[in-house]
Amino acid sequence: MTVELEVLIEIDAPVEPSYTGFHLGNLWGESLDYANHVTSINGFQAEADTDGITRYVIAHRDPGVPNWLDTTGQTQGFLTA
Prior knowledge:
This protein has 81 residues and is mainly β.
């Protein structure tokens, strides 16, 4: 299976933060279609890898890994961490 990887973001926080959230938006800063797609992940939903690093994958198609965020077809937009 071939998946186009758009963006891979790695977070290695030395101290676990009280709150984390990762959200995608369009060029106007509006939320994407979160009712039908995974476009945000909070700290309770995110899964760290065995090395302790949390990796977020932003792609058009599901690559079958944890912490995937769906672009909903958008090619540009805002990313807020």
